[in-house]
Amino acid sequence: MTVTSPVSIVIPCYNRAALVGEAIESALANGDGAEIIVVDDGSTDASWDRISAFSGRIRSFRIPNSGVSAARNFGVEQAKGAFIKFLDSDDRLPAGAVQALLQAQSDLAPQQIVFGDASSIGPMGEAIVPFGYGYAGLAPNGAMSRAALLSGTMSPYLPLYPIKALHLVGGFNPTLSLGEDQELAVRISLAGFQFFRIPFVVAEVREHLEDRLSRTGDADIYRRQVCVANEILRHLCSETSSITQDEILSFARTIWILGRDAARRRFEVESRQLFRISTDIAGPVQAAPVILRPFYKIVDPYKMEKVLDLIKRVIRRTKS
């Protein structure tokens, strides 16, 4: 690979004919020599036609449907930039985002990776609210600890990834269909890199009605969370000499919270699996809220969550 531009913007696309053009336009608006790579992941709608309309201004590729991780990895393989900025085909890149990331990165050490915040936009592109996955509180001074990383989600559109870091760890895990972004970030952290936050919105993330509906609970989401948790746990176990107790507890608490969430939605199998992973990491109920630990020692976590949920419902009814 010959580096000819500082940044390659990689946009994977699958059946986003109505929106991919807007994503590409936002990337072009960040321009200033950035290379824009769009990978159509075997779309069956008019996405490729929309992408082809930008011929001469972007580099576009079409591959058999392989999933978003494989599409991103393919884009990285084609990239000529020293840094990679990922952008989903239904999202937008805010004005000045690439320049802000590059400027911040120029002031950092080689083993630090800059990332920013995100904002939500509605189905029609209307602004909703800025957010940062909680990292504003976890990294108020910029540098983020690994314990903080293990307690959140490093979505792929937040960092400016050095292409050398992506090559070093092998890119995204194509076997994961959810949480692949966090699993990648953990591997990069274990490879010796540290994430550094700037308070600048670097992605406008579109919310869709179907996304909101899915949050009401789909057991498959939690099954995939179990797969991600096991993968991250495997990586942590392979680096035991460099992992601290705080980092272990941070990850265990994250998994415990997912277990509680699954329990509230009555996904018993998935909830118990997540509670088991958390317990395997940190010991019995060590990741649970301190005030609730005595109860979890008497009643198993899944049943305890059902009891707590019932109590909350009764309280709400008495107040109404």
From TrEMBL:
Transmembrane segments: none annotated. It comes from the Bacteria. Residues 8-107 form the Glycosyltransferase 2-like domain. Keywords: Transferase. GO terms for molecular function: transferase activity. This is Glycosyl transferase family 2.
